[in-house]
Amino acid sequence: MNAQQLSVRLMKVAAHVQADAVVADIGSDHAYLPCHLLHNGGAVRAVAGEIVKGPYESAKKQVQAEGLEDKITVRLAPGLEAIEPSDGITTVTIAGMGGSLIASILEDGKDRLKGVERLILQPNVHAQAIRLWAVENGWQTVAEEILKEKDKIYEILVLEPTEEKVELDAKQLLFGPELLKQRTEVFKEKWQREAAQWKAIAERLENTTQTEDIRTKKEQLLEKIALMEEVFADENS
Ligand code: SAM
User: Fold this and answer.
1) CA 110, 90, 99: angle at the middle one, nearest 5?
2) Is 83 in the pocket of ligand 1 (CB under 6 A)?
3) How far apart are the first and last CA of the chain?
4) Which of these, 104, 137, 144, lies nearest to 121 by C-alpha position?
5) pTM
6) To test ligand 1's pocket by mutation, which of 29, 36, 122 has the most ligand atoms within 8 angstroms of CB?
7) Hey, is 154 helix, strand or coil?
8) CB-ligand 1 contact for 176 (6 Å cutoff)
9) Taking the C-alpha atoms of 50, 93, 102 and 223 in order, what is their torsion angle to the nearest 10 degrees?
10) Which terminus of the chain has a lower count of CB atoms within 10 Å, N or C?
11) How far apart are CA 51 and CA 4, in angstroms?
């Protein structure tokens, strides 16, 4: 992968960025995404934020090598602290991390989201944590995608602010309101894989000393398995 040839996963993230966007890419190891956007007319300016020195240095080098220093500012900072009010950021991208980490980055930095019109988030796991955060913080889902690359399955969530109260039921939170409507083959594969893991864990928990913790964990897994069975039963009806 490089700034010209992004992974399929990052190409799909890039496709949700609007042409006149000012982008903050948080966790911007190598700054491939912002460089690609700037080269291809996918954004007008960008900030690349990184918390770790090594990837921050790689991002700086990449931006220099691409001759984009006047368009992309690279900052060493945790999460949304990479954004300054004068940047005029309209779109935030956060890709390649767990959903819980992405949700905590959004929660910790929510004052920096004033003026942001779109969040494009690509959690590797646990997208539910982001959906919960979105519901509690006035962001609605405008698009969702699911894709498979090199045998890994990824979700992309596109959120925009809303004044209206957003409500998602348990199924929509877990599976994604748009992904549930699409029910693609990759979606089915993801949840079949997950269900197989849940069932194996639930079985192991069944054969362990039944503490309160174990019982709660088992109940949560059984609830998720039941939700999944409901979703796929709808499918067959
Ligand atoms: N976004 C790129 C992608 O999708 O290919 C890089 C993903 S890489 C797996 C995750 C990057 O996020 C790492 O470089 C890591 O240092 C950075 N990161 C993790 N937590 C962060 C945080 N709180 N703030 C900024 N960067 C963070």
Assistant:
1) 50
2) no
3) 43
4) 144
5) 0.95
6) 29
7) strand
8) no
9) -160
10) C
11) 24
